[in-house]
Amino acid sequence: GTPTALMVGSGMGAERGILIRNGEAIQTFKDVKAIAFDKTGTITKGKPEVTDIVLVKGVQEKDFLYYAATIEIGSEHPLAHAIVEKAKNDKIKLGEVIDFNAIVGMGVVGNIDGERILVGNRKLMKDNEIPYEDYEEELIRLEEEAKTAMLLAKGNQFLGIVAVADPIKEDSARAIAELESMGIKTAMITGDNRRTAAAIGKKVGISHVISEVMPDGKVEEVKKLQEQYGVVAMVGDGINDAPALKQSNVGIAIGTGTDIAIEAADVTLVRGELSGIVSVIKLSKAIFRKIK
Ligand code: ADP
Ligand code: MG
Known about the structure:
Elements: H1 2-15, E1 18-20, H2 24-28, E2 34-38, H3 39-43, E3 49-55, H4 61-72, H5 78-89, E4 97-103, E5 107-112, E6 115-120, H6 122-127, H7 136-144, E7 148-154, E8 157-165, H8 172-181, E9 185-189, H9 194-204, E10 208-210, H10 218-229, E11 232-236, H11 242-247, E12 250-254, H12 259-264, E13 267-269, H13 275-290
Parallel strand pairs: 2-9, 2-11, 9-10, 11-12, 12-13
Antiparallel strand pairs: 1-13, 3-8, 4-5, 5-6, 6-7, 7-8
Helix pairs in contact: 1-13, 4-5, 7-9, 8-13
């Protein structure tokens, strides 16, 4: 009967690096019609590295990195780690920040050596009336290369752009292609900007790209997919993904992700490989075909 199937399913899942916290999840997988993926840390490795620094005339790279990295020490975002790492590699001595604030979905602000420093996206610059518009073409070029571009301002002055690239996991494209060939729709939900998201979506062959979503907006996006497709799985690794994992019919966490995401999910992909999702759906279909 079903309990035996669930036990067998759990054992077979574990062999494939899939930990099942909620036994019913194994039953739900066979009915999944669409899967929503977080981007950073889920489709990509979540280990971005600085690739480009574009400076306004007269600005020194070491000064730019001093401000950027000093403020990002206070942030837990993977983008922040990339900037801090770059400064460390370049042996830049960092300073101290006071009045630090992380603004979700936008960036960070704080005071360094008596100067107000901002690092974040266009929206952060617009909200603070920082003129960066002359660099719009440069931003677009970086984003079309699938990079995330962050802008830095000191006081009311725009100083430049730091761009990072986050490598795509080796098996993401193959797993997404297999899911699509099984008739399952794939979607990516990210806070990143439209162009970067589209460039990554294209590389991995995802069918819907939903970008510039504020952290608390992921739940709404999952609800919309449920209205459109019915049974929806969500895959994520971040703190921000937890509510969307709960909202979905079956939540899948990345084993290398945050504990909060793992606790919110029904299953965990221990090694973080998206091909585990293909395995568990096939497993679910096989088990429940046999016991009918
Ligand atoms: P995601 O997890 O999909 O990258 P977030 O909502 O965390 O989405 O971030 C959205 C955007 O806000 C980022 O792409 C970046 O432009 C900006 N941002 C967020 N945190 C930071 C940070 N610590 N430093 C600079 N920019 C940031
Ligand atoms: Mg993530």
